Amino acid sequence: MSSGSGRPRSWLGHLASVKARTAFGRRITPPFVTLYVTTRCDERCVHCFYWDQLNPKPNRDLKLDELCRTLDSMDEIYNLFIGGGEPFLRPDLPEILLHAARTNGVANVYIPTNGQHTERTVECLERILVGAPRLRFHLNLSVDHTRPDEYDRIRGREGAWRRMLRTFEAIRPLRERFPNLIVHTLTTVMRDNQREILEIHEELKRIFEPDGASYNYCRGNPLEPGQTEVDPALYRALAERLEDDYTSGRLSARGPSAYGAANHLLDQHVRQTVERTVVEQRAQFSCVSGRLACVIYSDGRVTECETNNTVLGDLRECGYDFGKIWFGDKALDAARKAGDGCFCTHECGHYASAIYDVKKIARIGWAAGAGVKVRADKRS
User: Fold this and answer.
1) Residue 31 · residue 291 · CB < 8 Å
2) In angstroms, how far is the first alpha carbon of the chain from the final one?
3) Does some domain include residue 4?
4) How many other CB atoms sit within 10 Å of the CB of residue 245?
5) CA proximity to 308, closest of 280, 346, 273, 278
6) Which pairing describes strands 181-189 and 311-314: parallel, antiparallel, or unpaired?
7) How far apart are CA 51 and CA 86, in angstroms?
8) Of 34, 148, 293, 341, which is the most exposed, with the fewest CB atoms less than 10 Å away?
9) Residue 147 belongs to a domain
10) Alpha-carbon gap, residue 313 to 74, rounded angstroms
11) Contact present, 161 and 119 (Cβ < 8 Å)
């Protein structure tokens, strides 16, 4: 079922293809995939929603050949989000991503990292960027505070700040060599940093000069449950600061073109829908999870999303044929439920649903060209 082209389409070409192939209710394998590559992690973050699944014994992570067989059974994957665990603890991560780039025509890979493994990270990045030169590689460096002592406390590991900075300095030369390497800071807005979040944002710009700054709203059932107690007004103030920074070009070290205006407006739209979801406690759109987006966990479980986590099937039990799971009745039922008023604050779900909404994308594209802000639509 894979496309086999190895060359990512343009976004408009991809969107047109998806709309054509899903006409009249037809289903396709999801072009928006979150792939957990490992359950191994060497930190214990207070806001982690996956903490009780980390470092299991015995380890049941899919082997390289199992992952490749799964990818071979899937069609085009335009956006591939890598999760964990700490992805760079997986030695064969380059092989996984290069196989996906060749087999599934991946256009964008997004990888969060705690930045604790400098040499491994640099080696992995170089191999992927050389081996897949058309791939846009989004490296999201997790930075939840800019005071070293507080950073180490949040991450649950002494010396974490120092090691993370060392990794950041080591990847600076790669940013110059590879224009398709896009480096973001990734910050979870939580109870313990929300009142300093504007100061943290300013320090992030000064220290890292990132191509963009991404912020996640603390969600799920974190290691410290109280971390989800975020004041929407503080989150809104951060969103307004980000809009000003993007509009002025103050955020990106390489100028607004490093991470295009349309991408910034899409991020802005997602922040608005997340905030509105928190305040109104209702769906803001019809979610595409289970239809155009999925999660593949490192042990082979397939779910429609990370929030509902309905286990649709197990890849090991179906011979790594993704279609046997995705085109089954259980997946179809999960897709119906996701699209019928289901809601959460998970940014990936908001992002996936926005990019496959033709009217919304057209509006964002027009706003990017006109240099204006875009507001999220209210769902009636």
Assistant:
1) no
2) 38
3) no
4) 18
5) 346
6) unpaired
7) 12
8) 341
9) yes
10) 15
11) no
The answer to whether 71 and 1 are in contact (CB under 8 A) is no
- Parent domain of 160: 11-370
At 141, give phi and psi (nearest 5°): -85, 115
* 2 part of a folded domain: no
What pLDDT score was predicted for residue 330? 95
Is residue 254 in a domain? yes
Enter the pTM of the model: 0.92
Instruction: Show the DSSP H helices in the chain as ranges.
Output: 11-21, 64-72, 93-104, 118-131, 148-155, 160-177, 197-208, 232-248, 261-280, 322-326, 329-339, 347-355, 358-370
CATH number of the domain enclosing 262? 3.20.20.70
Strands of the chain, DSSP E: 32-36, 79-83, 108-113, 136-142, 181-189, 212-217, 293-296, 301-303, 311-314
Q: How many Cβ atoms are within 10 Å of 133's Cβ, its own excluded?
A: 11
User: Residue written as tokens 């908001």?
Assistant: 350
For residue 41, give both structure tokens.
């992690």
A 10 A CB-CB count for 367 gives 18
The reported pLDDT for the residue numbered 380 is 37
Please count the structural domains in the chain.
1
Q: Is residue 348 within 8 Å of residue 30, measured between CB atoms?
A: no
Point out which residues pair with 79 in neighbouring strands: 32, 108
